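forwarding from the other thread:

> can someone predict this with S-adenosylmethionine?

sure thing
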Amino acid sequence: MNDLAEILRREIAAAGVLPFDRFMGLALFHPTLGYYERPDAATIGRQGDYFTSVSVGSLFGQLLAFQFADWLAALPGGPVQLVEAGAHDGRLAADVLGWLQLRRTVLFERLEYWIVEPSARRRGWQAGALEQFTGKIRWFAGWERVPATGVQGIIFANELLDAFPVRRFGWDARAKSWFEWGVALDGDRFVWARIRGAGNGPLQNPSSTLDPPSSSLWTVLPEGFTIETCPAAEAWWGQAARALREGKLLTLDYGLTTEQFFFPERSRGTLRAYRRHHATDDALADPGEQDLTAHINFSALQAVGAAAGLHTAPLASQAQFLTRIAARTWQPRSDFEDWTPLRIRQFQTLTHPEHLGERFRVLIQSRDD
Ligand SMILES: C[S@@+](CC[C@H](N)C(=O)[O-])C[C@H]1O[C@@H](n2cnc3c(N)ncnc32)[C@H](O)[C@@H]1O
C-alpha cells in the first residue's frame, strides 16, 4: 500500500464507509501525495496518462486567444482580465499570452492575466513557465481572494471541472430511491459499499440533478443505475459567476445534460480512471497514481450561472466552437498566423469526432453591462 492508501485506510477505519467524494478529493488533491501534485510530465501528454487539448499543441491556446481578443475588445476601456483556472503547468496561459502579445499589442497593454490556483506547488510550476510574463500575471488561491470589484473580462477553464470530486449514487429499484456509494475496505483492498441513510433507511433525494427528465423514468430505471453529481463543481461555478462583473464565463470539458445522464448506455455512470492512456472502471485502485474523472453536468452549471444572472449560449461541441473561430482566421484580411501543416494536424486532432472534437463541449455564459 502506498502512503496515500494508508491515509485513506485510516479515514475509512474511522468513518466505516467513506463518501466517494472524500476518497476522490484525497486521491487527486492531497497536498503532497495527490495525483495532481505529481510533476506534469508524469500525468499529461504522450508520456503521461492522458492528452488534453493543451497538450496537443499551441494552436488551441492561439485560437482561444483570437476569440478572447474579440470579446475583450467589445468591453469598455480600462483594464480587462483573463482569468484562468486549472492552469496546471501554465502551458495554456503561455500560448494565450504569447499570441496576444504578438498580435494584439494594444489590448495586451491593458490586459491582466489572473490565475485561480489553490495549490502552492502548481503556482510554483506556473510562475516558472510564465517567467517572461512576470508583472502581467496575478495568482489567487481561491475566489474569495479575487478583488471585490470582480472581473471585467473572461473567466475560463479547460478540463478543470471534470476533475472535481463527485458523489456517486445508485438506484434501488425495489425501494424506488437512490443510495450513495462510498468506499470500504476488504482486507487491504478498497471496495464499493453503500452509505446508509438516517436509521439505515434510504437517502432522501439528495440533489435535483438526480430527478430524471421525465417522471415516467422512475418506474423503468433499472436496479443499480448509476449517476454522479458534483456539488463542488456547481459551487465553484457559482463563485465564478458571481465574480464576473461583465464579460464571459466558459468551460471546455467532457460533459452531459441532465437528460443525457439518464441514457441507458450510461447505466454505469461516467466515472473513469485513466492510466497510460487507458480508461478503466477501477476508480478505487492505487489512489494518487491514476487520474479520476467524471462527466460534468452542463444543465446543473447552466442553472447555477442563470441564478447568478448570466445568459447562456447554446452548448457547442469543441469541434463546432473551434471551427467557428478558425473560419474567421481563414478570412483574407485575418492576421492569425499561417496554417502550417503542423497547425492543420493539431486542428484535426482538436476537432475530430473520434479525438477531442465531440467528446468535449463548451459552455459559455455571459453578463452584459
Ligand atoms: C485535467 S487537468 C487540466 C490541466 C489544463 N487545464 C489542461 O487542459 O491541460 C486539471 C487541473 O485543474 C487543477 N485544479 C483542480 N482543482 C482546482 C481548483 N479548485 N482550482 C484551480 N485548479 C484546480 C488540477 O490540479 C489540474 O492541474
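Residues 59-73 form the longest helix (15 residues). thats all i got for now
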